[in-house]
Amino acid sequence: MAPATLKKRSEFLWVRGGRRWSAPGFVLEARARSGDADEASGARFGFTVSKKVGGAVTRNRIKRRLRALTAKLPSERTLPTFDYVLIARSAAADRTFTDLASDLDQALTRVHQPPGQKRRGAKNA
RNA sequence: UCAGCCGGCUGGACGGCCGCUGCCGGAUUGCGGGCGUCUAUGGCCCAUAAAGCAAAGCCGGUGGAGGAAAGUCCGGGCUCCAUGGAGACACGGUGGCGGCUAACGGCCGCCGGGGGCGACCCCAGGGAAAGUGCCACAGAAAGCAAACCGCCCGGCGAAGCUUCGGCGAAGCAGGGUAAGGGUGAAAGGGUGCGGUAAGAGCGCACCGCGUCGGCGGCAACGUCGGUGGCAAGGCAAACCCCACCGGGAGCAAGACCAAAUAGGGGUGGCCGGACGCGCGGCAACGCGGCGUCAGGUCCGUCUUCAGACCCGUCACCCGGGUUGGUUGCUCGAGGCGCUCAGCAAUGUGCGUCCCAGAUGAAUGGCCGUCGCGGAGGCGCAAGCCUCCAGACAGAACCCGGCUUACAGGCCGGCUGACACU
Is residue A4 part of a domain? Predict the structure, then answer.
């Protein structure tokens, strides 16, 4: 079953302030929902495919591939109180589906890691 | 067989797993339900297990992108805004003629001009003897026509000749000349004959042009005859003139989402505004009885005609907001087949079909097999193997067009060569 999707611009802007990880085909952003977020709806996904990556046909195709990617995801890979946004890059149209799947798997791991280790050196600056 | 022209169609197929969305049906579950959601109260309707409803979920069935869905360039439908009529002006568009169409800048047929051996293709194709303007560079000269070279004529004339009168190449100034050279996109009709000092529509023939008439055609126009006698260059996608057409904004149009507050809106009555007089009042002020005067607004501008409105007050009615929801929203100048009329565009009649309605925006994701195209290899061949390619592109209110993009494939008609009979 496909997860619920983000529909409002304000929701996208909220997730933008969270953690992000770049993969060859896309950029993944993630952030816990604010305040009284219920776990009933589960993790939600949003998709951003700008005109930079191509015309309407390729943009639609990329959006459908990314959506199919999230639909196959086992529910334990995502956090139910989180919202995720996938920002497509131009490689998403041609990259093989299995590669995209492993990219997403790695990106989720990275995004769920607590911040700190990576930023250790810059903390005092 | 090769080369080419025109028109039409098509835009991979099948299967497996997993999904999205509209509609229909069913079962389950829930509930007193519903009156959309958000805050709170009240109210209304249906009702005691039937109807109904249900955010979300389950099962089954069924429909689900294009020829250009694109560019948003024209024409309409539909919706809202604007009080209606007439005239003038302005602005924008169109431009051979006739037809088709709801309409068009579209299509069909025809005419004229140009290109091609031909099938056929191309043309912003009204007016330049109404006016204004422009014609770069080159060239003597670019719109009053004009003499650079040349040609011709007579005059003067160093050299030279001489019968001593003169003649006279070169040269000098003057005149004639648009045939030749040269410049140019274009040199003010073309070709030929006559003519002439040389030339020239100066004359003649043919062609072109203008004009008049006859004939053919609905017309654009064609054709024949007479006549004029070169007068009349190009550009109107320069201004302009002529004829015809045209309100503006767009589905984010627009409508709706019970009542109670505010802002606000509507309808009706009275009253329009300013000034003066009058009346009431101690006054501030109020009333609107009388008289005079001047307006403003009403969708391009101005004029005109008709009409309405203005500010205040009273009564009644409506009346919360939104980025949300519902609707508009898909049956339409509709598709297909036949028929009749027409050269055709197209129209008539009959039959038949229902064919996407999303809204962070569905119509798909992944995989396999086959087929098509190209390259390479193997094979006598049929064929087999490997690799590559598979375009342009995604509905957003709906139609009719135009334009642009497009891998490849299929069908039909026609033309010209060559070969054979």
Answer: no
